[in-house]
Amino acid sequence: MRLNLPEADFNVKKNEDGQLVIFDSLRKRFVALTPEEWVRQHFVHYLSTERNYPTALMANEVSLSQNGIKRRCDTLVADRQGQPLVIVEYKAPSVQVSQATFDQIVRYNLVFHARYLMVSNGLNHYCCQIDYATGSYAFLGDIPDYNDIAPVPEGR
C-alpha cells in the first residue's frame, strides 16, 4: 500500500509457511508483514534517513509492564544519554487515528516519560511535545529533526 512517507527498498520475502515477512533492521530479524508493520518500517526509515534519528538509539516492540499487564511500545527513541525521548504508536493505514490511539500512547508514556509522542497510520502523522514542568502539551506542525530535540551536549 502506498503511504504518505518516502518510499524505501525493504527486504520482503515469503517464509517457509508462505507468509510475507519483512526484515526489521532494528530487531535484526524478519517479522510478519502486516499493514501496521508496513507503516512501522516506513516510519522508522523516514525518521532515520529524513529526520536524522540514530538507529542505534531506536528500538521496535519495546516491552513494558503496566499494572501487571505486559504491553509493547511500537518504537522507542532514546536521547543521547540513553533516556526515553520519543515513543511512537503505529496503526494500519485502514485504521483512523483517534482519541483512543492517543489515550493508548499516553498510557505507555506513564512508564517511559518521553518528551515526544508520535502517532502514524502511514497516511497521517502527529507529534506531540510534552512539557512536564507546566503539565501541558502541544502538537507540532511536523515531525522534528532529531538534532533539534536532542542537541549534542556542550563540550562534545
Task: For the record, give the distance between the C-alpha atoms at the N and C termini, rounded to a whole number.
Answer: 43 Å
Sheet with most strands = 6 strands, mixed
Roughly what percent helix?
A: 10-25%
The rough form would be described as globular
Rounded mean pLDDT is 94
Percent of residues in beta strands?
35-45%
Radius of gyration, taken over Cα atoms and rounded to an integer in Å: 16 Å
Structural commentary:
The chain has 156 residues and is α+β, with helices and mostly antiparallel strands. 22% of the residues lie in helices and 35% in strands. It has a domain at 34-141: tt1808, chain A (Alpha-Beta Complex). The chain has helices at residues 35-50, 99-112, 146-149, and strands spanning 12-14, 20-24, 29-32, 58-66, 69-78, 84-90, 116-120, 125-131, 136-140. The strands form two sheets. Strands 4-5-6-7-8-9 form a six-stranded mixed β-sheet, with helices on both faces. A hairpin with a 4-residue loop joins strand 7 (116-120) and strand 8 (125-131). The longest helix has 16 residues, at 35-50. The model has no long low-confidence stretch (mean pLDDT 94).
